[in-house]
């Protein structure tokens, strides 16, 4: 009652139980449970996660109001136990509440990683890593009999190598403190714990149950692994005396930590450095890798689309190319549509990141008080028959001559979010995704492992904020003969 003082014109929602609210109505995946509940209660709902009221928005119009009309009022983030831990007490970008800390960290991140200049100068890293990826897959294709490839491993290793080279200045192919073969385990475990809901988030004495249930210890163990990895990276920078050369974001931030600022101005601390590393490593590797895996999965389930796509790619780029470059990305129109369609059906972060209202606002005519958490369900928006015909089907052609694109201006497709908190890594993420897919589809013909049929392809999901394919995708690569 205290949190929602005005009963006037609140959104509808299912009646909850005392203390636990609506938690008992949720299944394993929040986005799917909320999708189901929204079919009954409509596109703006009020639910209670324990004692915490949460507004769920599941329509294009509602999303536009939250992310565009009320951008300044809704651009803060609520705090949870998991996000506090993995972001070094909200000293990162993704989960920092709106304010100076967020503004300064986002500025540094954009300048050091995502400016036009950086995007251009990091191009050779992305291209080199995609060549290495092709070499790795070729090795399996050259084996006799040809063996299948675990695309999850290969793709995670590709994404992690790019992110770590451009952000941490670290070439993981030559580094002995991280096992690149198992990098996906580190990323997926950290992300799942970061996004997992602790009871302490929803009940006044929930922390006690978290300790008894083991949730507290699980979070801390996963966090310790990630921290150990970061400490190695930082030590490496300190050892080689790099802080002054400003060649990567870690060097730049170490330099800022060592130079105390004038009284009253913003001071970068050790926690800011680790918070940014956490964002870059988890957000940067995970969402991109997951998108590539879902795209290859959907193509394997739709051989007609796969064939059309490969024919278009090979006809456009011509035969016997030695390597794919980012210039080639401009030429392959249908690949972009296939990725858009994958984003629609498998948005990597289906609920985006939660928002917190900073003043009283109205969404679709309902009163939403200050300090209320808002979740936008892009999973439902992507499946809304008002936005898309035959929404459950994978039809990339729906985007032909269609102005909808994914950059945050069209609210029926929001894989990167929109507004002030839109993903700053969008251009890097999309370049990584397109380059990897183009390389895999130009050089190889793909088939399912022996005995497997399209019907057996498992579509089960896993994850918390970011939703991945649970069962690794195994496919057999065959080098394409011209
Ligand atoms: C295909 C790749 C990617 C996808 C689909 C993706 C998706 C997203 C989404 C949905 C959000 C939440 C936006 C919102 O709440 O409105 C987000 C935020 C964010 N992403 Fe990405 N992302 C990708 C790549 C990257 C990369 C490569 C990086 C960094 C290396 C990155 C760093 C971040 C950060 C720091 C935020 C938080 C922004 C803020 O709160 O101000 N992302 N991303």
Automatic annotation (TrEMBL):
Names of the cofactor(s): heme
UniProt similarity note: Belongs to the cytochrome P450 family.
Record bears the keyword Oxidoreductase: yes
SUPFAM superfamilies from the UniProt entry: Cytochrome P450
Membrane topology: Single-pass membrane protein
Pfam families recorded: p450
UniProt-listed InterPro entries: Cyt_P450, Cyt_P450_CS, Cyt_P450_E_grp-I, Cyt_P450_sf, Cytochrome_P450_71
Keyword Iron among record annotations: yes
Protein name: Cytochrome P450 monooxygenase
Gene Ontology cellular component annotations, sorted alphabetically: membrane
PROSITE patterns: CYTOCHROME_P450
UniProt GO MF annotations: heme binding; iron ion binding; monooxygenase activity; oxidoreductase activity; oxidoreductase activity, acting on paired donors, with incorporation or reduction of molecular oxygen
Keyword terms, alphabetized: Heme, Iron, Membrane, Metal-binding, Monooxygenase, Oxidoreductase, Signal, Transmembrane, Transmembrane helix
Native species: Brassica campestris (Field mustard)
Subcellular location: Membrane
Residues bound to heme: 423
